[in-house]
Write a structure and sequence with these properties.
5-stranded mixed sheet, 8-stranded mixed sheet, metal ion binding, Alkaline_phosphatase_core_sf, Sulfatase_N, 14 helices, alpha/beta
Length: 524
């Protein structure tokens, strides 16, 4: 087939920040995301999709490299990503694409590739290799958006970050308010970034583009413009799943004790309010605003889809919608992301490809999937091969309507809570930085949490879906604990870095085996 006759292949790879998978179920009587629901009706929803790491930096390092965090080792915001690893953008370039970014990736450059004093070593808001920046917007790069606000006549606060304050609020604000943001909905950060992508697309309908589009929301601060700040009634939102008191929650495990102490500050959620000091009604308001921010994203998702349909590009475009990680939102008295509870790592995933079989549209896949699967999926769709070290598997068979004979029956994630020798959880727990790691393996029924230097946790999700009863010290469940600990070890062994491992030098030359790694058996 001549080049001119090849079908156009475009990639719209969308991530949000801090959208938990069950967010739309928190207010079951409301339809706050009709455009995402419409996308799901045209594509495939992966119901049990999990990110392999949190917070943002390690989550995105995993999402963009297809590597587990114990392989790439960029485990905290600011931990450099080793330059020897490839990523989806570098591999897409080999296929002739020029991947562009709208938003941010929280990527930390390998300082060994720089010169002394390089400004890129003073931030974790960097750019991964292979990706070209078109429009930046994140908590450290608000200036492009704020410049446009100033041009539109807004009076900006002296401290630019205070654009997220409520009118009349101060740094000593003690209560959470549902008041509107200082900016109108049409001028919000979410609207601004969407406008930038629509501008980029105007003259590119005949191109094969690759866009990585990253909305900052529903990341804190939990403040939204009218009408989204009051769109969701507080009484329509379910209450957090937690023990009666924070003291009971802290008593569960030394990690939770220390982590909840760390969250006892107004700085933790960047909202000038300590979430642990809020009343039950104020917490409901905060959860409602979180859902309002999601509704705002959904409205702009609709704008993107409508543009692609109007230009005829919809049937040329792979669309992936997911999030880097979730948000605990008060469950177990925790906020933000991290730890071992599901709301932090269970995230949405919807994929829609052109030419999908009609019978697969609207399909809901109940099999476990992970963020490491996104890169192989994109690469297969654009005709590129994943690199040997990548840990995930392409999801395209599910999208074609198939059910793979062999597939994982568990998911894995890692949370690293080191602070590199300066207080925090290291000091509170008396640990070295390299002892500050937990690993989770989650099956249908069982969930096992292994700490490097702290006691483990074991939950029976069939009888305790809220994760309130730790069975790790129960003699009756000793065999289950041992089985899962062994399975976790086998998982890490199976997915060890293998760039050259399956290569052999022989008299006849270089021999290389390529193929899937397989899966860790559930019964060892």
């Amino acid at each position: 087939m001549a080049d001119a006759e090849k079908p156009r292949r475009k990639v719209l790879f969308i991530t949000t920040d801090q959208w938990r998978a069950d967010a739309l179920d928190l207010a079951p009587g409301l339809d706050i995301a009709p455009n995402l629901r419409a996308l799901a009706a045209e594509g495939v929803t992966f119901k049990r999709h999990y990110t392999n790491a949190a917070p943002c930096g390690p989550a995105r390092a995993t999402l963009l490299t297809g590597l587990y965090p114990f392989v790439h080792r960029s485990v905290r915001n600011g931990t450099p990503l080793d330059a020897r690893f490839s990523n989806v953008f570098m591999e897409a370039r080999r296929g002739g694409y020029d991947p562009v970014l709208f938003g941010y990736t929280d990527s930390s450059i390998d300082p060994r590739t720089t010169v002394p004093g390089d400004p890129r070593t003073r931030t974790f808001e960097g750019l991964p290799p292979g990706l070209r920046l078109e429009a930046a917007l994140n908590e450290a790069s608000l200036e492009p958006w704020l410049t446009d606000l100033a041009k539109r006549g807004y009076e900006l606060p002296k401290r630019l970050r205070n654009i997220y304050h409520h009118p009349g609020s101060t740094n000593e604000m003690k209560r959470f308010s549902r008041g509107a943001a200082l900016y109108r909905a049409e001028d919000s950060d979410t609207a601004w970034l969407t406008d930038k992508l629509l501008d980029f697309w105007r003259l590119r309908a005949k191109e094969d583009w690759f866009v990585h589009f990253v909305w900052y929301r529903p990341h804190p601060p939990f403040i939204a413009p009218e009408p989204y700040n009051r769109l969701v009634p507080a009484e329509a939102v379910s209450r957090p799943s937690r023990r009666a008191t924070i003291e009971e929650e802290r008593a569960v495990h030394p990690f939770l004790d220390a982590w909840l102490c760390e969250q006892d500050t107004a700085d933790y959620l960047k909202t000038q309010v300590n979430a642990q000091k809020l009343s039950a009604d104020q917490i409901q308001d905060m959860r409602a605003v979180y859902l309002g921010l999601i509704a705002e994203i959904d409205a702009h998702l609709g704008r993107l889809v409508e543009h692609l349909k109007q230009t005829g590009e919809w049937e040329e475009t792979l669309v992936i919608f997911t999030s880097d990680h979730g948000e605990l939102l008060g469950d177990h008295w925790c906020w933000g992301k991290g730890g071992f509870h599901d709301p932090s790592n269970h995230v949405p995933l919807v994929i829609r490809t052109p030419g999908m079989p009609e019978e697969t549209r609207g399909r809901v896949v109940e099999a476990f999937t992970e963020s490491v699967d996104i890169v192989p999926t994109i690469l297969e769709w654009i005709g590129q091969q994943p690199t040997p070290e990548m840990n995930g598997l392409s999801l395209l068979p599910w999208i074609r309507g198939e059910t793979p004979e062999a597939w994982r029956d568990s998911v894995f994630w890692e949370f690293d809570f080191r602070t590199l020798g300066g207080g925090g959880l290291e000091s509170d727990l008396g640990l070295t930085p390299d002892q500050c790691t937990l690993n989770v393996i989650r099956e249908d029924r069982w969930k096992y949490v292994h700490f490097t230097a702290l006691p483990p946790l074991l939950y029976d999700l069939a009888n305790d879906p809220g994760e309130f009863t730790n069975l790790a010290d129960d003699a009756a469940h000793a065999s289950e604990r041992a089985r899962l600990a062994g399975r976790l070890l086998s998982h890490r062994m199976l997915h060890a870095e293998r760039t050259l491992t399956n290569t052999k030098l022989a008299h006849s030359g270089v021999k290389t085996w390529t193929g899937p790694r397989g899966f860790t058996p559930s019964a060892l």
